[in-house]
């Protein structure tokens, strides 16, 4: 007696589809996570530098302005299409880095939220991202 093979390709496709789609979109989300972290790191460094050299967007006269620096950081992050709330940015004009004083220090702490529902059990509802950047203050 011959067995019918109709439908075997559909069953094989169904077995492979879920892992393939998860791998494909998981790779894209991982890339988006790394890109977001790098964008925030670049934002933190640009803000620390802006404060350290007393550039106009981050200073009032020759004095660093923390409120303007936070606005600068949020604007810079938005240029990368990354939304950062004001409470997530901590700018310190007279901070320490590696136990050395005289640095402008910027810390950005936020969460990455995946748009793929199947990845939420793996990454959690919100994956924390924290970046720190320092730049020596110019006198």
Task: Write a brief structural summary.
Helices cover 45% and strands 26% of the residues. With 139 residues, it is α+β, with helices and mostly antiparallel strands.
Report on the structure:
The chain is built from three helices and five strands; from the N terminus they run H-E-E-H-E-E-H-E. It is an alpha+beta fold and 139 residues long. It has one domain. It has a three-stranded antiparallel sheet. The protein has a two-stranded antiparallel ribbon with strand order 1-2. The N and C termini lie far apart (92 Å). The model has no long low-confidence stretch (mean pLDDT 91). Residues 7-49 form the TadE-like domain. InterPro entries: TadE-like_dom. It comes from Glacieibacterium frigidum. This is Pilus assembly protein.
Q: How many distinct beta strands?
A: 5
The SS-based structural class is: alpha+beta
What's the SSE pattern?
HEEHEEHE
Our estimate of the beta-strand percent is 25-35%
Largest sheet: 3 strands, antiparallel
Question: Strand order, biggest sheet?
Answer: 3-4-5
Please, how many helices? 3
Give the total of domains.
Answer: 1
**Low-pLDDT sequence parts:** none
Gyration radius over CA: 23 Å
Quick one: overall form? rod-shaped
InterPro entries: TadE-like_dom (IPR012495)
Pfam family, one: TadE
Protein name: Pilus assembly protein
Topology:
Blueprint: H1 8-52, E1 59-60, E2 63-64, H2 66-79, E3 89-97, E4 100-112, H3 120-123, E5 127-136
Antiparallel strand pairs: 1-2, 3-4, 4-5
List keywords for this structure.
139 residues; alpha+beta; 3-stranded antiparallel beta sheet; two-stranded antiparallel ribbon; 45% helix; Pilus assembly protein; TadE-like_dom
